Amino acid sequence: MYQAFDVIGGSSGSAERVARLRAAFDALSIDGFIVPRADEHQGEYIPDSAARLGWITGFTGSAGVALILRDRAAIFVDGRYTVQVRAQVDTTLYDIESLVDTPLSEYLKERGARLRIGFDPWLHTIGEAKRLREAMVAAGGALVPLSSNPIDAIWADRPEPPKGRVWRHNERFAGRPAADKIAALQADLDKKDVSATVVTDPSSIAWVLNIRGSDVSHTPLPLSFAILPREGRPTLFIDPDKIRDAEVRTYLSGLCQLEAPAAFAGAVEEVAKNARILLDPALAAEQLREIVEGAGGAVVEGPDPARLPRAIKNETEIAGSRLAHQRDGAAMVDFLYWLDLQAPGSITEIGAVEALENARRASGEAAQMPLRDISFDTISGAGPNGAIVHYRVNRSTDRTLQAGELFLIDSGAQYEDGTTDITRTVAIGEPTAEMREKFTLVLKGMIALSLARFPKGTRGMDIDVLARIALWKAGCDYAHGTGHGIGSFLAVHEGPQSISKRGVTELEAGMIISNEPGYYREGAFGIRIENLILVKDREPVAGGDLPMHGFETLTLAPIDRRLIEVRLLTEEERGWLDAYHAWVRETLSPLLRPEVAEWLAGVTTPLERA
Fold it and tell me: Which part of the chain is the Peptidase M24 C-terminal domain (predicted)?
């Protein structure tokens, strides 16, 4: 299995670890220390060796930060983790704060008077450090960069950094040779009049060089850094033990100079002398700014030049995604058919995860495109566990799917031709009227986005309301974004695009993004419906005068009609769902066993005949 179910996190040992950290404050001349969930690459996906926040707090979510002062401590999380953090963290030790309502910078501005707060400049972006520094200045305190991380000195059993094997991502999946990508990025640097850029995001490095790796769970990333000069060969800083195949070493040596990570800081210092260096303030570590400016260079702030080109998929990547979704859809239907045959109370959340992973393996083998991994730990939540937005089932929380409950399963796969992410909410037995109503309101939001037409230049924040308005009218909402970008056999969460209240990036043709509104009643049930959608150019509207975009749905899987209150749907919404189900049925039936195809035909019958 790609997913393990061991119990991780929890507050055992937190008090002793916090005490040991505080004991180091006097020698460091600080009054507190900031512990983010981050590594030197500032990504969502970190190795176990960088899980400092989890080690000292017990919290295992993908976003959060702790502030440990001499006499108190706080942990800051967003709305996805409000339930999880209370289950994992010792609340007698840590106050729980909202990353959105009371971000750390605001907290420090109010409580940081005359304090010296230490931080590891490798673990905070330039933008984060600036906000924190300004907050401390406003409070009459100081933000103090430390030369080494004090947690590392007390973490006796800290895991070793990963050394996952790197392999070449075939051009028949990438659609474009690495040399062309390098040349295009160098032309961009020339336009910006900078000498070089430092690339810290492993997703960008993997995309530019057409390589993949295995340093973090479920995401094929080779943790590494790169310096891309305006002219000449790039330098890739990567542990040589990761390049185990002679063919891969020869390939990479033909593209760039290879150096060990230990040479990275010195190389940045050398290239920065009297030079203009492009750094992404949202991705590059504060330490890099200090190195560049310390060498007499000038930091030019701007986005990672590979980030937007990586997000806009080429035709090969789009074609691969369509095929991956057909394969994944067949697996999902096979799983849903199996689930429908199980009596309530007979299977558990873990059993469902295992069945779905097996279905994906079988579907990949049948198509001769093997499942390489799942794209994240499957969220398999029955009843009240479904209300925990990023719930991760383990041996101690594993719950039986009972009659009268909802079951939420959010999962995805990594195939060489595409990354998938899908959520379905299923009725176990007879749903209540409230479940049907809330499910239908969520469905209305998902359909509204699917049908949207919008002018070119529209940002994700401009259309986020479409997915929420039906819920808002009922006095409800959900505390997460509506859509995130998707990589191409890369990260399942990929920027810069998003559909959310903070989605400032314009949506461009070729971007793949999720469409996943939800509703969560703590202690009772959770609802989420998720399809992946592709931004496309659309034909001009008759009588209109603006070029328009729209979406093509990629995900193929039935939506549980037992949970739909048809009277709440408009004619247009019913028409969309019927057409979607017809497409699912026609596309997937040839890939299914006869009995599964027959089941699919039954559950995709038009609503008018339901």
Answer: 548-607
